[in-house]
Structures are given as structure tokens and as C-alpha cells.
Amino acid sequence: MKPIFIRHASQVIAGQKDQGDPLTQEAMNVLNVIEDGSVWIEEGVIKRVGTDTQLVEEFGSRVEEADVIDARGKLVTPGLVDPHTHLVHAGTRENEFDMRLNGKTYMEIMNAGGGIHATTRATREATEEELYKESYERLNQFLLHGVTTVEAKSGYGMNLEVEMRQLQVASELHKDHPVDIVRTFMGAHVVPPEYKEDTDAFVDLVIDHMIPKVAESGLAEFNDVFCERGVFTPEQSKRILEAGKAYGLHPKIHADEIEPYKGAELAAEVGAISADHLLRASDEGVRMMAERGVMGVLLPGTAFFLMADSANGRGMIDAGVPVALSTDCNPGSSPTVSLPLIMNLGCLKMGMTPAEVLNAATVNAAHAIRRGNVAGSLSEGRKADVVIHNTPNFMQLQYRYGVNHTDTVIKAGKVVVK
Ligand code: NIG
Ligand code: FE
Q1: pLDDT value of position 20
Q2: Which residues are annotated as part of the binding site?
Q3: Which sign does the torsion angle of CA 216, 221, 226, 227 carry?
Q4: Contact predicate 150/142, CB 8 Å
Q5: Ligand 1, pocket-test mutation among 261, 333, 342, most atoms within 8 A of CB
Q6: Is the ipTM of this complex over 0.95?
Q7: Mean pLDDT over residues 141-159, rounded?
Q8: Distances (CA, A) of 22 to 100, 131, 254, 279
Q9: What is the pLDDT of residue 18?
Q10: 310: Cβ below 6 Å to ligand 1?
Q11: Is 302 touching ligand 1 by the criterion CB < 6 Å?
């Protein structure tokens, strides 16, 4: 394979010296910007990042053997990382969108048997091939928006067989599709109707039956739960997350999405890798997350689509919480693959700066799925996941909002979008 030489970008956002830890506070607002920047990619790896002059000097006559990409007037960043998606599912729920626009709430629809239940029925009925095909298409769309790594949750099976099927599909997609996929078990996404009268019995089933089998299969790395009034209580969520920990599954949590419910506090207490949503997180919960270094994965697209107030991203960063951004891609509360739009909303709805949102969708997003050392940064020696945006600087990426500026995507050293 010929080397790829990206040349003369008006800005390259290069890796910073120490990216072993998530970025917090002022560090979230710092980017390593190289003007007239170039990147040398060889054998799938980023060999060198610097000014064009530096790289030409270093590679000398080898420049002639490379495939040169002229990036004049463009911005080069790491491949974007989406740390929270419900990628593998069947069907759509535009009927519920219409119901919400006519006054019904998300929870009312769910409690009447729609919402997550509706997608569970569709997912249970789908064949493995159908799930694979639908999800493959979504991954293509992610890639077209510059996303090169996604986390994918189960959670539309609510029985072991279908939960495992979702994880299996995610695992096959990881092998077959250029986008890298990190898998999360979410057996506790909602209480299935057959357990409505005895939710603890379902929690027991997740703990005693599903978690051990999922852990044994090696199909998941994280364990997530929807901690919300009317879904799983903080006590039940804690039991589920602790049980996962005992089997080596790292805890994640859908926390304080609709109502304040002490989800952020729980995330800190169990040492979760991340607490996600946090629209209604308490100040105390946020303080505890900062103290414990729990990543806040914020999903402003979900707030936007549910017509709710966004999480207080600005306040969380100022309080010392490391913040990441994600689409939450799912058929009910956020049917989008546009992480660039989510970054726009990070600025416009949560008061984050253009530099902060870029770090939140790259470096910190990678940390939110324990990939901080392999993804989310244009650092020498890393796998070459690189995006060229058709915009001259990182501020315009946010300023010209609602536009997909993705021009070229390189995944593991191969041009996959052009
Ligand atoms: O992150 N809140 C729980 N889970 C998803 C929505 C899933 C769905 O509606 O299908 C979320 O918002
Ligand atoms: Fe979610």
C-alpha cells in the first residue's frame, strides 16, 4: 500500500503531548492547531504530523511514491468517535414523533406500550440478516459524517437470545465495516410487559441469567442501564451495574434524562466509565462525577428531538467533569447519525466552545469507551483515522451549522469516503 500524504491543510488538529487522560476544564478548550499542516500515513498508521515544510524535509524523495491529497483550504481532524448509540435495531417510529408533536410525551408513549417496547417488538421479529443490513446502512451514514468509531448497545431484546443477537450483529459489523464498533450490553433498557407487576424479578433475570452469559460470550465490554422513574430505580440500577462489574463489564448509565433521579450520584458511587444524558442531573451529582472523574456523555440531539432543555454542558465542564458528545442514535429519542450536528448543538444549546466540542467528539469520546489510547487523536503511531472537512478552520465547522462538511474520510489508512 502506498503512503498517503495529506498536504497543505489550512489547519491540522494534531494530538497533544499527554492524551492518557480525559481532558477537563481549560484543557478541553485547547487544540494543537498546525497551519499549512500535513500528515504522513503509512501502513495504516499516522507516521508524522507537522507543517508541510517539516514533512517535505523529513520524507524528501519519498514524497513521489505517496498518494498526495491536496487539503488546501481544508481542515484535518481525527476521525470522530460516537460513544453512545443504539445502532443495532429494527424499524422506525415516525408515528410517535407525530404523536409527540400532538402533545403526547415520550414516557406516555412508552408506558402505553410504544417507545422502546415498539422497537423491541420489531427487533425481536427481525432476522439476524435484516438487523445486519439495516445497521450496515446506518454505519455507512455515520462514515459519511466523519465518524470512524461508534459504541453500540443492545437493549431491544430484553431476553438473552435477542440481546445476544444484537451484540453478535455488532460484532460482525465491526469485522466487516470500516467503522470500529465497541459493544455494550443493555439488558436493562426497559422492563418488558411480562414483568410489569414484578420488576425486581426482571432485575434478577438480568443479574443472574443474562449478565453471566453475556460476559462469558465476550460479546460486550460495558453494561448499561436506563435509570429513570418508571423504568429502573437507582437501587435496581446499582445492583445491575455492580453485578456487571463482578463479571468484568464496565458500568455505564442512562442518567437523569427525563427527571432528576440521582443517576449522576449513582454513576460516581459505582465508578461508572460514563454517565450519559444528564439533562436533569443535580449539582451534587455533577460535583461527585467531577471528583470521581466520571465522563459526562452529553446528547444534545436527544434533548433537541424531545423538545427538552439541554444538559448544562457549560456548567459541567466548569465544575471539572470531563465531557464527551454523542448522537444517541436510536429510533425514538434521537434518530440521527450526524455527530457534526450534535457538535453544533453542543455550542448553540450548551454553551460549549468550538474547541471544546471538537475535543468532546474525539479525545474525550474515545476515553468514554476506553479507547483513549487508540482513537480520537492525530498522534504519531496511532491507527490513521482521519477526516478532511471542507472548511478552512475548526470554528467554521460550528459556525456554518447544520451542514455536513465531511470531504474525505480515511479509516485505518484507507480512503473510505471521497
Ligand atoms: O438514550 N432513554 C433510553 N434509551 C434511549 C432511547 C431509546 C428509544 O426510545 O428507543 C435514549 O434516549
Ligand atoms: Fe441512549
Answers
A1: 81
A2: 84, 86, 93, 156, 189, 254, 257, 328, 330, 332-333
A3: positive
A4: yes
A5: 333
A6: yes
A7: 98
A8: 37, 34, 20, 21
A9: 65
A10: no
A11: yes
